[in-house]
Amino acid sequence: MATIYEKALEKHAAWRGKVSTELKMALATRDDLSLAYTPGVAEPCRAIHKNPDDVYRYTWKGNTIAVVSDGTAVLGLGDIGPAAGLPVMEGKCALFKKFAGVDAVPLCIDTKDPQEIIRFCKQIAPTFGGINLEDISAPRCVEIERALIKELDIPVFHDDQHGTAIVVTAAVMNALRLTGKRAQDCTLVVSGTGAAGSSIIRMLHRLGIGRIYGFNINGIIIKEDYERYDFLTRELTEITNPDGRRMTMGEAMKGADIFVGVSAPNLVSGEMVASMAEKSVVFAMANPEPEITYEKAKAAGAYIVGTGRSDYPNQINNILAFPGLFRGALDCRASKITEEMKIAAARGLASLVSDAELSPDMIIPGAFDERVAQTVAKAVAEEARRAGLARA
Which residues of the chain have pLDDT under 50? Predict the structure, then answer.
């Protein structure tokens, strides 16, 4: 029997790519040609030259984003390069179209230089309504995103950072609802402080989680080691490990309320989970193998368990965030995506689980819930308008 990987390879060979372009108008007669191309096309060109905002009215810009990657942090595969990363970027574009009706174009580029990537994105910005950065390694991804947010007037979003953080935050919101705990009373342990982990820490700190400990391959993040860290980890020293304690992750998990893993397989034991506080929450999301399996976490006493996998309850998947987020940003022509818009997206997502539905196995809606993209889009657009960032 063929494995999922063998089946996928066969399908990709048959598809010859997962996305394609299509015509929106008839092109069968001389009249069609004169309207779509010369001489008729000159008139929208003149209109846009006179009023640059008309590019949203007369071209695809208002509903099209670029998915830009250098292939340095692809899924669980690492630095495999732009060509090998292309199937993932095509897949991302397919998800944008399927779940939010957003047209997306994969652009895999042959450079690892942050300044060249920034320059490239600025050069293509006139063509697109937004830019989704994808599978670019940390901390370069943060440097690139921050520069582009500052320099461009279209939404720029690095999904590997913030998409996962939005969904984790929504899941934590509902976990707090279910357990009756207050954010400020909770202790959080995060394993993995790269692109996703650092954004999760910042967003849950913004949510009001009282005490946060972050761990990476070198151990606990501690201000005493500030000079050894890159800029991204240095920022985390300001909001984690408030007591400046050196300890193992097992020691940090004793009495902790929430564990979030975006790191590597089998880092968490049943004993570590058993030592957590009553009604503990474990989100073990390393793919394809988590920090601790669903079964082991449950057997150890975890009250709520979430993974990145679709074959267990509570799948923490950024597909719940990025399609609706860009849908909302494009619909209101937001000039940027802010932290407040991300929190709004998380609140919208969390709201889709009613009090009657809320349970240890149901704290987040499913990927195919048709309400998700629309609800997230509405929440994002409303926040953009409130903040004065919407131009439509």
Answer: none
